[in-house]
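Assess this one:

_____
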Amino acid sequence: MIAIVDYGAGNITSVKRALEHLGHAAVVTSDKGVIESADRIVVPGVGNFHATTALSAQGLSTALARQIWLGKPLLGICLGMQWLFQSSDEAPGIYGLGIFAEACRVLPNKVKSPHVGWDQLEVRGQTRLLRGIDSGRFVYFTHGYCAPVIDATVAACDYGSPFSAAVERGNLFGVQFHPEKSGETGLAILENFCTC
């Protein structure tokens, strides 16, 4: 069973529908007990980085950090990926989980923001999450802030400058794009997460 964490940041229904389309049982929850008993966890999200404060307010940050520490596979999508980082310029003074020490930054002012639509992935190195996904495949983005390219980056995208499109460290995964809205490529990535 896959727990989809509900912290009021939206886009949950399409994630659940995509996982169920692939044949995986998924439940939307903010219950720590359900999250702890799940086989895998997805932290989705759309909106301002400030929305991630609901994870702490509901006591979910600690529960999720424990599950990561125990090695349970977790996938952060869009805002859910940014929450894995230390902070974001979008909400000064608000801190993420800090698994990745870097901060998320606003997109360069030389490009239109937010970055909305289909763009290409540049796959980097060996990755379980992107197994079978070649560089040049298109996925769907909608964001105004992004994570820098770091040692855990397994795919980048260039929009004004390179940023992390996907990160992977152990059983922790994050994607800036929306796999649930990225057609067959996105479904393949979700299936990789469900079976890694």
